[in-house]
Amino acid sequence: MITSAPVIGVVGDDVPRQLLLALGARPHRLTGSWTGAIDPEAQQLLGATDAAVARLLTELRGGAEPLDALIVCNDSQANLRLFYVLRATGSNVPVHLLDMPREASGPARRFARSQLEALAAFGAAVTGCTLDAASLTTAADAEAALGDALRRLRSRRRAHPPLCAGAAALDAIRDAARLAPADAVTRLDTAGAQAAPVPSGAIRVHVTGSSHPDVTFYRELESDGRCVVVSEDHDTGDAAWLGEAVRGETADHVIEGLIDAHFARVTTSATSSSEGRAALTRDLSREAGADAVAAIVRELDEAPLWDLADQRDALAGLPFVSVRVAPGGEIEAARDLVRDVVARAVPA
Predict the structure, then answer these.
(1) How confident is the model at residue 129 (pLDDT cuts 50, 70, 90)?
(2) pLDDT score of 195
(3) Cis peptide before 304 (omega within 30 of 0)
């Protein structure tokens, strides 16, 4: 009899997928959406918080996602509120909080180790499996193949002109964070294959700011062919923690390697310094050959606003535009952004 792998939902971007895969689970990233209904009770429970998270709580309370368990990362105040609401009001599935420290030190490494060990224990309780050398190696191979596919997609996006538009790439990356590894590789490698070619004169845009829960904003940004998103540094796109593989003789060795990888990352605006975020924006936009950088910030997702001044300075003259997006104002904000980008940027 063939049984499917238990599905463990993941909110946030701190979970090392290799551990869940080695335990026989399928990680499934949950992001909410730009648009859609918000249950008034869900909004009341969360208070004043990012609309994407309120929509996610609405979906979870409605049972839209068939999950066996849920992991919530403490990588934003909105996500932390979500965890406490789920714990206080009850959930249909077991819920676990992953609280990874941000700056490396001896005590931070010890705390990170205890967090990943607790994560592994939670996953083992869900799947009935335990970590061993063979399962960790198999999971590392699968996740490394995903990383290779992401690099191939990145190369297609950075071609002149791009061989894959930003909306198609973002949609594929979001799917990859939910699919079984082999299916995820196929999804990434076929991203944009059926789409019309990107116009050769399109302005190449790097996106920063809030994460994008779906492709709504990208699709509108690219809709008339004047702009194309070639890269981003938010955590649901190319900067998502996908494809990280660590090989080691024991589970302890792998966990230590994953801790190294965690501390080497520049994470979200809520958890990284503005200086680090600005350097990441500068480096990725240059590597992608961007003509302009666009900071897209959702209302009540305040952390990216603190990065804007440092990002503008780090870009050293590269056109930098920003837009605040209120719930219901996504289309108008995207059109305003296109207008500003076109007015300030010259295609290479």
Answers:
(1) very high
(2) 84
(3) no
CB 30 within 8 A of CB 56: yes
What are the DSSP calls for 66-130, one per residue?
A: --SEEEEE-SSHHHHHHHHHHHHH--SS-EEEE---SS--HHHHHHHHHHHHHHHHHHHHHHS--
Give 202's DSSP letter.
P
Contact 207, 296 (CB under 8 A): yes
Rounded to two decimals, the pTM is: 0.95
Torsion of CA 290, 285, 314, 305, to 10 degrees: 100
Model confidence at 198: pLDDT above 50: yes
**Nearest-angstrom CA–CA distance, 322 and 34:** 18
* DSSP, residue by residue, 222-273: TTTSSEEEEEE-STTTTTSS-S-----SSHHHHHHHHHHHHHHS---TTTS-
Please name the CATH architecture into which domain 136-241+269-344 falls.
Answer: 3-Layer(aba) Sandwich (3.40)
* 7-127 CATH, one of 3.30.2000.30, 3.40.50.300, 3.40.50.11890, 3.30.300.130: 3.40.50.11890
pLDDT score of 319 more than 70: yes
pLDDT in tens, 60-112: 998 877 899 999 999 999 999 999 999 999 888 999 999 999 999 999 999 99
Instruction: List pLDDT tens digits, range 114-124.
Output: 999 999 999 99
Q: Residue 307, SS3?
A: helix
**C-alpha neighbours within 13 Å on the C-beta side of residue 329:** 12
**Contact (Cβ atoms closer than 8 angstroms) between residue 212 and residue 220:** no
Cα(206)–Cα(38) distance, integer angstroms: 30
Segments of the chain assigned to CATH 3.40.50.11890: 7-127
pLDDT in tens, 173-188: 999 999 999 999 999 9
